[in-house]
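Dear colleague,

Thank you for sharing your sequence with our group. We've completed the structure prediction you requested, and as agreed, I am returning the results in plain text so they can be pasted directly into your records. Please verify that the sequence below matches your submission; if there's any discrepancy, let me know and we will rerun it promptly.
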Amino acid sequence: MKILFITSSHNGLSQRAWAELSAKGHMIKIQLATSNEAMINAVSAFKPDLILAPFLKKAIPDSIWKSTTSLIVHPGIKGDRGPSSLDWAVMSQKTEWGVTVLQADEEMD
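Please find the predicted structure tokens below.
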């Protein structure tokens, strides 16, 4: 499967997902979400079957999520929200935390 990662930073979460999916034989391309144009151009050039967005700080353009299944991945403590939920888990010495996956749409989560 051709999978495009759209991410604000190729951090530990996206690197682990890349390693796991690549090991299973999937073709992965990484696109930093520097601008809407960069994201749109990456989708147009790569023609992915699926878009994964681990660690994304901006919305995926409508033209992308309306044409290609786009899944947003958020790490965090069960029941916690916000951009620093994983930081809170580490600082609180939590040994486990959850991951939420949702499909992109017009409302930014």
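Summary note from our side: The mean pLDDT is 87.

Kind regards,
the structure core
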